[in-house]
Structure formats: structure tokens, C-alpha cells
Amino acid sequence: MTGDLDDLDYLDGNAAAGPLSEFFAIDVVSARGRCAHCGRTDALATARVYPNSHGLLLRCPGCTEILLRLVDAGDRVCLDLQGLSFVELRRH
Amino acid sequence: MKTGWNVAEVIEVTQETRTARTLRLRLPGLAGHRAGQHVDVRLSAPDGYTAVRSYSVASASPGDELDLTVEELADGEVSPYLVRQVAVGDQLEVRGPVGGWFVWDPADPSPVQLIAGGSGVVPLMAMLRAHTAAAGSASPGGAAPFRLLYSVRGPDAVYYGAELDDLARLPLVDVTVVYTREAPAGSNEPPRRLDAATLVRSTLPAADNPAVFVCGATAFVETVADWLVQAGHSPARIKTERYGGTGTRP
Amino acid sequence: MGIVSPGFFGRPRRDDPGLPPGQYLTEGFPVLSAGPTPRIDPDEWEFTITTETGQVHRWSWTEFLALKQDDVSTDIHCVTSWSKLGTSWRGVSLDTLFESVESDCEFTMAHSYGGYTTNVPLDDLLGGKAWIAHEFDGEALEPAHGGPARLLVPHLYFWKSAKWVRGLEMLRQDEPGFWESNGYHMYGDPWREERYW
User: Fold this and answer.
1) Domain coordinates of chain A in residue numbers?
2) Which portions of chain C are predicted below pLDDT 50?
3) Which residues does the UniProt record annotate as the domain Oxidoreductase molybdopterin-binding (chain C) (predicted)?
4) Does A77 touch chain B (CB under 8 A)?
5) pTM
6) Nearest to A11 among B3, B98, B244 (CB)
7) CB contact under 8 A, A43 and B38
8) Which residues pair with A86 in a beta bridge?
9) Cβ distance C121 to C161 under 8 Å?
10) Could you give the domains of chain B?
């Protein structure tokens, strides 16, 4: 893959908290997730959100591969978690 | 946290600067929130068209009220409506407050360094206000030193100016404003871009291991986070909130 | 359906007979960015068509530019509701690229540098309806808009016009691509407003 990282059209994973709150009963952006591609494990809030897209994409800040995809189709919301091989929630 | 979309009422509007306004919302059923969180606001046109944007909460009150400070973006679709059209008594749909990562926890006794670029001061203001509230309580965070470094275009663009002046007089709080384009009248410091040396000089040292919160345009946040790491701060102690690509580097 | 915000209309949309339903006209050229922009050196660029038998037809950048070039003026419609009229492109017709290709398949999957995929029926690529475009408005296509070359299938929503395209794979059966597998329509006709499943 010939990606580079000088594009600045992204936000922090924290920006996905609202849309993801429709799926998860807890604040999932604070949870740690493991990238299915490179294995990097960190809070989802540290991933990169590409908001100017056809859907909300969360990408691994290490390898730029996709952790999560969310498409808001109006009357339905579709969530793809293929890129996350593990999620860890902390009970406070 | 309230889940899903809820209807909030605008109960007060305050002009913050020429291009920014603070909307005070009442969200029935809300019982406070965490300092640094944001809400999503959804506007619906009569033909069913909707637009959603995220705005940080500036207030830190325990009840059912929230302040959002919105900057009007030249090309914006939602912000001009919120800054110019919305009036007291209007209703808005909001989701949240959400986001449990970019938040200050009053139970954390660590010293705190806040770094804002322009409108990025909004969630950091919520943290300063929460800190002030915690200072009078048993929360360990209330006794922690709090510093704000605020990079802003000019005196006209400063949010919460009078309140920041008051906060800066508190023993635990320190506020440094860097004016990048226009200095205040009577200042003997010319306007200048924030640079790494100024950043290091006006922030808590890495040796204090402060919790650092950086918020602003994506390029600003990126650059500041790099400088902090070069100055010895642990990346794990730096939390960022990028507002997008509409700003410039420091 | 939530409450209506009085006085809010969103981006100006108009009932223009030249625009598909639900679209608004833009003079700009918005960039949708689903990730970091791939930068592909033309020396490393290639375009392939892979058939069901595994046969690979391959063009280098130089070979691709030596093919017959078409100038195309067309309207484009993005599923995020903007339309842009009378855009000018230069590129190679898929008819030209398929001249030497033997296949019984009716479906294709476009693959891009960076990993993006989108499915398009073969019929929609042939008959002067689709190109591999490498110039926009008389200039080399910028990486942000899909350069060095992108698929151009303007009669479908623009997500089908894959940026940074590197090849087409012939498929016996239709399969969903990147967005089609997560909510977007398999075909994507803007005039029938085929946005989502």
C-alpha cells in the first residue's frame, strides 16, 4: 500500500462517540481495541476518524488499516467491525 | 449520559466574539456530564434533509444545562444557523454528551496542562470550570495545578476573556495567551506564531508528568503533540481532540 | 423523524430537471477522504484486467497513454448529495481496454491502490459509458481526486468511479465492494436514488 500520513482530513476516534453510542451501552471509544492487521492495541479514541467520507471510518494510527466502518443509511445504521480483533472494556 | 437523540431547548444566547456564540441548552433528564465531552447536534430541514455536527461542551454544571460555543465557519452549513439564527426558545436535537476519553476526571490528582488553538479552548474551558468547582470539594483534582496555554489570532477572537482573567488570579491556575496575528492594544509583545520554545517555556515540565489535553485544528494539534513528545512528555499522557483541517499550523 | 429546525434549509438544493432527485449543485469539487491519499509513481503504476481463467491483461503507464484517448464532458453525482455539471475529463474508454479481453462474465470488481473496491456490471463499463481517466479540466488528475488515474462511470453515483484504480477483476456473480458490503446500493443509479440497500 502506498499510503502516506501527511493528509490532515482526520479527527480523533473520540469524534465517533456519538454515532457509536447508538450501538454500545457504554462509551466504546474509551475501550481498548486491537487492530486485526498490525496488532496495535490502544483506546479507540486514539484512532483516526475520516469524517468527509461515505461513511464513518476509524483507521489504525499505526498501519492506517480500517478498524471500524459505520454507514448511516437513514432508517438503518450499519456497523462493520472486521478490522478489530479484540475489544477490552474497563469497569470503573 | 443520555442515549439517542433528545430535544434540548435554547434558554440563553451570548455573543462570544464577532463570529462565535454560546448557546445555553436545557436537556431535560440530564444530570451533569464529564468535562471535555461533546454533543452531536442534528438540524432537520422541512424537506427531511438533516445535517449533524459535533460541538464541545464549555460548561461544567451538574444539572440539566449545557453551554456550547459555536464558531461560524465561512463555508459552514450548520454553524451559521447556530451562530446567527437560533433564538431563545428554539429546540435543537442533540445526542450526548458523549466521549469518555478526552475528559478530565476530578478524582485524578495529576497536574494538568491544557493547550488550545483558537476555538479548541471550548472543552478545555469545561475542564477549567470543573477544576474550579472541584477546588471547593474533597476531589483530589481540585488541589492540582492547572495551566492553560491558549493560542489565538487576536484579542477579538478570545473566548471567555473576562472569566479567564479571573481564573488566572486563582493560586492553582495559570493562563498564558499567545496572540498569533494581532497583539492586544498596549502590549509590548508583537504577535507571533506559537513555537516549540514558547510552548516549553509556558507549559508544565515533562518532569511533573502532567496530564496534557490539546484541542484545536488538526494541523495545530499534530504539531503541538510532536513538540510535547520532543520535550519529553509521554505520548500516553497526551490526549488530543482534533477539530478538522480548517485551521493552520501554529 | 425529529423536530424541524425553523429557517434551516441546509445547502441550497433546487428542483432542477438536470439534477437527479435529492441532489444539489456544486461549483467546487468536494474531496471525500476515506483515508490517507495514496501517492502512486507513474513508473510503478499499472492497470490490469483479470479474467475468470486467470489471464491478466496489463498496461504500464506508457502503454496506457499510447492508447486512443477520449475527451469526455459529463455530469457527476455523488451519493452525499452534490452534483457537478459539465465536468471535463480525458482518458481511455473501457471499450478500448476490453478489445482484446475474452470473458463470459457479466460482473466486475474494480480494485484500487490503497485497497478500495467497488462492483460494476460489465454492461455499465462498455458502450461508451466508462473510462479510465487521467486528466481533469486539462490537468493531470490530482492524487486527492484519484490520480494518476481513476475509473469514470458517470451514469452511476460517483463512489463507483473508483479513485486510484489499478485493475478490474471479472466476476461470474455480482459481489459487493467496499461500501456496498456496508449499506450502499449494489448498483447505484442516481436517477432512481439507489443510495442504500
Assistant:
1) 11-88
2) 1
3) 35-179
4) no
5) 0.90
6) B244
7) no
8) A34
9) no
10) 5-98 (2.40.30.10), 112-242 (3.40.50.80)
